[in-house]
Write a structure and sequence with these properties.
The structure holds two protein chains of two kinds. By secondary structure, chain A is α/β, with parallel strands linked by helices. Chain A has 21 helices and 20 strands. Chain A has a domain of 215 residues: P-loop containing nucleotide triphosphate hydrolases (Rossmann fold, 3-Layer(aba) Sandwich). Chain A is globular and about 70 Å long. The mean pLDDT of chain A is 85. In chain B, helix 2 packs across helix 12 and helix 6 crosses helix 10. Classes of the chains: A alpha/beta, B mainly alpha. At the A-B interface, strand 1, strand 2, strand 16, helix 14 and helix 15 of A face helix 9, helix 10 and helix 13 of B.
Chain lengths: 546, 361
């Protein structure tokens, strides 16, 4: 066995906030050997990113570290800046979550790779360029010579992440820290990036410290797993052990909360015959009009979908496929260019703002981002009560009573009426979002990726709540998501979109088990499953198919 | 909806997520409380608040005032336009009307501290300079407040409308704003002052206010462009809110930080604008005085009787500086990314805590 690249001993990070030290990561102990992958998993706020940043000493000035972190035998805690600079990039490389913000937008990717190379090695510009192209070739960027002179915005999300990886590999680092490297990417791209990292690890014999909340990604990559909760390590073991025989209750809970494709119970819908659809979209085209020199952009082409009362339809697709556009148009937030759009029997294809007011009573929407979907200056009670107030249904005390009932319905304490959004966690805010959307007991609810910003356990609770409410209130729901496993839990029917077109629509099981369209098949195959053996089989199958 | 008062906002706050620890500081506080706490922590701004309040109260109660049937005597003995006998005793040779203010304690120079009869001295014809400076400060503060409020009102409305509606409304309003910006305010001021200077200081302030809103309206427009894309605006629209309600109830309160900050900074600019105009002779016209006109009137006497220059100057600097500091403090308070820095004192305290903890072990 070779010498470990990374040795972490009694490592503790604390933050100074308002006169008190709060621990963010406590007493971490682990080692990492070359060629191995250690995954740190946990929910947001559990201290996994803090640990990673602490290793390269990149924490903000109100943090303090104690204990010891040794990279190739060199102590990092309390090291002088000169020493750290030599180590960063050369011995330890960091892959950030969001390649768009981690790469400098005013320099070409080639320049940024060359910069890393020339900082650490005595290299001429020509040599460095050759090496950079070599690196870009290694990470499978199409046309490496040409891509060298491209700016980050000219590349797709997956290619940017590849460029980022190329940059981090520039100096053959012994340790690669990947902080949620695939979270911002679509599943199909995610699978490619994971394959790439897997290959590179074998080729270069680097150690990888992988930070993620996605158990599927962990199952795909990790040899060893560290489970963190509230700054403490609750369980540490090999991948097989954690997935097959978790001992700590929190690990079990975390694994239990992960939605798995094709495991949820059958959902049947008792459909009365000859019911009119709540939402009827017929051959709709939606376009963003041209602005100045930017030409018109057609986001959705010739799209048709019907949703019947009491039915949940899942709309899935990758980013940019136009699913959110459909959701917004369906409640009249966006005008449609051609086609026919009917909500509860009323045609709103050409409705003006005024004509839309009566429709508002029958529709509700839950938004994606819990941080921006509530007005930060209003107490949440006022946000929830606004639709009722504006519809003129209740005022004063009666309104307060209804708001409190709604809060109870979404399992929040009644006293939360006077809280402000920033006091609530992401999951709680999404509940408030639901309460607001259901305030007028709508016939149609649009849910636009309501869980994509939530942790798995919070997501599981949220989905349970949504199912319960739907059982009780029987509203029709268009559930937009990029996560097939989530849609699997909720939906009666699934519609798949690609590039603004409807690819396939059908009963849930028909789509998930017997998809006809190759795109749907690819999408399903790319979803990582939280099971290491299953993932290995899939990877081999993918490689064989190439 | 009124906030219920008897409920403690701090029961079982469950803060989760990325910044759980960083958010400990704002747990259980309303947006307003957070801003207030950050502001109170800003030492320069808090000092400025007290200095400015003291100055305003002192300045406005010093002289005789008539407001309809009410008559305020004022705590200062002279009027600003009263002709008095020029004092010569105690002054250097050949100089009359020197200040009697003695701010040096008696144990240093032997004479007791005190205001004396004419603390800021007298001007050429024997008027009490303290009364004149008080009068000048009143005029200047008055101009500043009028310009500030007028500019805030126009700038906010223009910015809000063009940012919210965009399209041709935006284009028309912004080109109009550009047009106003291209005309230098000093020239407007001197033209306006030349024509209307003797109509009184209120009229002058009003006219200047009509030209001072441009910067603010651009800032507000930018803020509205950003805020209107947020999801809570869509949520309000889905709830059936009208454009007016969205602008005033949902977006404006979120832009209030930007507005307050730039208005305070604009006010300190306004006081300098008035000073500059009066210096050029187009602002406040004799026999009335403002801080600027006092300085311009006595610029020649700087070498012989410098106090005629100093005292109005000190007032201008104090007022403008304290408003700037307050604006600075407000900007920091409204910025959610502002975190408390770890000071040397904090570090020492932390070390002491650790020591005690170690001893207890």
């Amino acid at each position: 066995m070779s010498e470990p690249v990374l040795k972490v001993k009694n490592f503790t990070v604390e933050f100074w906030v308002d006169g008190v030290w709060y621990p963010a990561a406590v007493d971490m102990n682990f080692e990492l050997n070359p060629g191995r992958v250690l995954a740190i998993v946990g929910e947001s706020g559990s201290g996994k990113s803090t640990t990673a940043l602490g290793i390269v000493n990149l924490l903000s000035s109100n943090a303090r570290m104690s204990g010891s972190v040794k990279v190739k035998g060199q102590e990092m805690v309390g090291a002088r800046p000169q020493v750290l600079r030599k180590f960063r990039g050369k011995e330890v490389a960091y892959i950030f979550q969001e390649p768009m913000t981690a790469l400098n937008p005013v320099y070409t990717i080639g320049f940024q790779i060359v910069e890393t190379l020339r900082t650490h090695f005595d290299m001429g510009p020509k040599e460095a360029r050759a090496r950079a192209v070599e690196l870009l070739t290694m990470v499978d960027i199409p046309n490496p010579e040409g891509s060298f002179d491209k700016y980050p915005h000219q590349l797709s999300g997956g290619q940017r992440q590849r460029a980022m990886i190329a940059q981090s590999l520039a100096c053959d680092p012994g340790l690669l820290i990947a902080d949620e490297p695939t979270t911002a990417l679509d599943v199909t791209v995610q699978a490619e990036i994971l394959d790439l990292m897997h290959n590179l690890k074998n080729k270069l014999n680097s150690a990888i410290l992988l930070i993620t909340h996605d158990m599927g990604v962990v199952a795909d990559m990790a040899d060893e797993i560290l489970v963190m909760k509230d700054g403490y390590v609750v369980e540490h073991g090999s991948s097989e052990q954690i997935f097959n025989k978790p001992t700590h209750p929190y690990t079990k809970e975390l694994l239990g909360a992960v939605p798995m494709l094709g495991t949820s119970a059958k959902r049947t819908l008792t459909k009365e015959k000859a019911q009119a659809p709540v939402l009827n979209i017929e051959n709709v085209t939606i376009a963003y009009p041209k602005r100045g020199r930017v030409p018109e952009f057609v986001a959705v082409k010739d799209f048709s979908l019907e949703i019947f009362p009491g039915e949940i339809v899942g709309l899935v697709g990758e980013s940019g496929s136009g699913k959110t556009t459909v959701g917004r148009a369906a409640i009249g937030l966006l005008p449609i260019k051609s086609g026919k759009l009917e909500i509860v029997g009323k045609d709103i294809s050409k409705a003006t703002q005024k004509e839309l007011f009566p429709i508002r009573r029958h529709t509700g929407i839950v938004f994606q981002d819990p941080a921006s979907s509530l007005n930060p200056r209003l107490p949440i009670g006022e946000s929830i009560g606004e639709p009722i107030f504006l519809a003129g249904l209740a005022k004063g005390e009666a309104l307060n009573k209804r708001v409190e009932d709604l809060l109870e319905q979404v399992e929040l304490p009644r006293s939360y009426r006077n809280r402000f959004p920033h006091e609530l966690s992401g999951g709680q805010r999404q509940r408030v979002g639901i309460a607001r959307a259901l305030a007028l007991t709508p016939d149609l609810l649009i849910a636009d990726e309501p869980t994509s910003a939530l942790d798995v356990s919070v997501q599981a609770r949220f989905l349970d709540l949504l199912l319960d409410l739907q059982d009780k209130l029987k509203f029709a729901c268009l559930f937009i998501s990029h996560d097939l496993a989530v849609v699997d839990i909720l939906a009666h029917r699934i519609a798949v979109m690609q590039d603004g077109r409807l690819v396939e629509v059908g009963e849930r099981d028909a789509i998930l088990k017997h998809a006809k369209d190759p795109y749907t098949q690819r999408l399903i195959a790319a979803v990582p499953v939280p099971n290491p053996e299953e993932q290995r089989k899939r990877r081999e199958a993918r490689l064989a198919a190439k | 909806m009124a906030r219920i008062k008897n409920e403690k906002p701090n029961e079982n706050v469950t803060q989760g997520g990325e910044n759980a620890i960083q958010n400990k500081e704002i747990e259980g506080l309303s947006q307003g409380q957070i801003v207030r706490r950050r502001f109170v922590r800003h030492k320069a701004a808090m000092t400025s608040v007290f200095v400015l309040l003291f100055l305003i109260i002192a300045v406005f109660t010093s002289l005789e005032m008539k407001l309809g049937p009410f008559r305020w005597r004022g705590w200062w003995q002279f009027k600003y336009d009263e002709l008095l006998e020029l004092r010569t005793e105690g002054c250097p040779e050949g100089i009359v009307g020197c200040p009697t203010l003695d701010a040096v304690p008696s144990f240093i120079d032997g004479t007791p501290m005190g205001l004396g009869r004419h603390p800021f001295g007298q001007d050429d014809i024997g008027r009490d300079y303290f009364a004149m400076v008080m009068r000048g400060a009143q005029r200047s503060i008055y101009v500043m407040v009028v310009i500030g409020f007028l500019a805030a009102a126009i700038g906010t409305v223009v910015g809000a409308i063009s940012g919210y509606f965009r399209g041709w409304v935006d284009a028309v309003l912004m080109r109009f704003t550009d047009f106003i910006i291209t005309i230098p305010s000093i020239i407007i001021g001197s033209v306006v002052g030349y024509h209307f200077g003797n109509l009184g200081v209120g009229f002058l302030a009003f006219y200047l206010g009509l030209f001072a809103w441009t910067g603010l309206s651009r800032l507000v427009r930018g803020e509205f462009l950003k805020l209107r894309e947020l999801e809570f605006v869509d949520a309000a629209r889905v709830a059936g809110a009208s454009n007016r309600r969205i602008i005033f109830k949902h977006i404006l309160p979120n832009a209030v930080g930007v507005i307050i900050v730039s208005v305070t900074l604009l006010m300190s600019g306004a006081i300098l604008l008035e000073t500059a105009l009066s210096y050029l002779g187009f602002g406040v016209v004799a026999p009335d005085v403002s801080l600027g006109s006092l300085i311009s009137q006595y610029q020649d006497s700087f070498t012989t009787r410098p106090w005629l220059f100093w005292y109005p100057g000190i007032f201008i600097i104090t007022i403008a500086l304290s408003i700037n500091f307050i604006g600075d403090g407000l900007r920091d308070a409204f910025d959610p990314r502002q975190r408390r820095r770890l000071t040397k004192k904090d570090k020492e305290r932390a070390r002491a805590q650790a020591k005690i903890a170690a001893q207890n072990d």
